[in-house]
Amino acid sequence: MPRLSDLSLDELSERLISTGLRLSVPPFVFLIRSDIPVVARGLQTLYEQHEYEASAEGFADFHIQVKARRHGLKRVAQFSMDGFEPFTPLAYDEAFALLEWGMNWCVTGHAHTWLTIHSAVLENKGRAVLLPAPPGSGKSTLCAALMLHGWRLLSDEMALLDPVTGLITPAPRPVSLKNRSIDLIRERQPGVVMGPEALDTVKGRVAHLKVSEASRAAAHRCVAPGGVVFPRYESGAPLTVAPRAKSASLVELASNSFNQHVHGKPGFAALTAAVDRCACYDLRYSQIDEALDWFDHLEPPS
Amino acid sequence: MNRVPSPSGRLAEVLCHPEAMSQLSLVDWDLLLRQGRVADVLARLCELAEDKGREAALPSQVWRHLKAAQLVARRQHVELVYEAQHVRQALASDGVPLVLLKGAAYVLAGLQAGKGRMVSDIDLLIPRERQADVESALMKAGWLSSTRDSYDQHYYRRWMHEIPALRHVHRGSVLDVHHSVVPPTAGYGLDVQKMLGAVVPVQGMDGVFVLSDMDMVLHSAVHLMHEGELEMGFRGLVDLDALVREFSSADASFWDRLHERAIALNLQRPAFLALRYTQRFLGTAIPQACLDRLQAASPRMSSMRLAWLDALYERGLRPMHASFNDRYTNWARSALYIRSHWLRMPPHLLIPHLLRKSGRRLIEGFKTREETNHAQA
Question: Global pTM?
Fold first, then answer.
């Protein structure tokens, strides 16, 4: 199958405006349409090595659009999935970020054969480590740093736990970064590939970091969970690690789940089984390198 | 033979002949899953596929979507049982039995129509004279009125046969409390006591009742023919088709009994029309003699008027997915919206009401028509 890098920006834009781009974003296929240039640029930069389906007809899990609209005098961007609009429009310049948020919504709102948990998840030494955390805890920065450090990214936002196999299914997509994080990651690795930057009225500056090629190439490989780490960034704090009781970890994971209510009791059992296999920690840090070093030495339970 | 006039009448086909699912290509499924999602029947398709062990023949990408919908529907069914107990308890202190309608009834009565049925609200039927008691009992149990708009409140109570939806203050469950099955002003002179007098108990649930088989069918029919917002119109056909198939196969005298009951309740015309469209869309096996008899027993309608209604409903009852739209679809939906209100309100009140409610709708109709052209495939 051809890759997005095979298309020029003009060809990509043309496809987005007309028949749509059927893009493979494992484990899903998105049919994407947009008439907004920043969307084309963002896709070309961040999904460069992703495969797409050239033929006019095919199968896509989600048919999505980010279209320009007029809101009085302002131009805005509106997201829709097959005609349904789950969000209010955002500023025109945020169109690419809106696409990414819309893709998240498609998965968390519909992909119920997995238990979806609001968490970053990366793999090292053959086991997955979940980083559940509320916004503002530094999770995204840490996730980006771990990936650049060589860890395999499974997702920066959503852990997809298969309740039948007990494994995490990778769904790697560009890492969403905000404000100072963007600069920090650029400082750590100059030349790193990021998508278009936008200004959101609520979140501030938003940009996305391209998924490492190693992570993208291994996206078909599911992996067993081995660790749950609850990170908390605290300026000036020394690295502090405390084991967290499995019961407390389970409760926290369940409350971070998008669709636990759909899975009911079997879902809870699946979460329990997952936590049982994991070493669980609270991590407080201020120096990313110290944190990375600690992560590298994390051993999955046998 | 189904005659859903869409690019592919496959949705109706797979609902009626689930074995056809295994012959579909991924491209077919790309459209079918989206149509099914909009029509709210994905969970049902999943149940039908699993029924005969056909799921193994389906591509895994497709199965994921069907299974996901089934999980949500099954979850709703679990919560439904729980909520129904709560409602029953709330009403019990006033000695009002819980009579369930529509989706909640099909699911709790274990009917085929309940398979994969999404049930977000609980519809219940109460005697009109107990309305005040019921509202207050439900309020004490935590269900509060969800609409504050005094125009809507007045409209619901005066012109429809239900009080505005009640939402539970903690659990968020929604109740639609009806005191008739058709707006009193629609002119059927329907005495809902007749239906309430014929209710049957739900097995395994004390104090919970559903309508008798014929009344369920007639209610489904009249609801479909009077509904102005047809977002769930296609699903209404699926319900009616499932009810009729199950009841008629269990009882040879079903059609005769249905005919008599339709006459007794003065619902011959909505029964005739609804069954006519169920047959057209889903190929329901209805004896032609039965349809003819119902038509003959109904108030006379010119063939031109019937043809006009056919043209409206053949579009209006399709799932609200852009792939089913032709250039007249949005006009047909608007016309049916107006018709449902025409049947319910006198003209001097209808016009101001429609101006208030439909102005925005007609504008949206223009907007969506543009998008129909772009939204294909």
Answer: 0.92
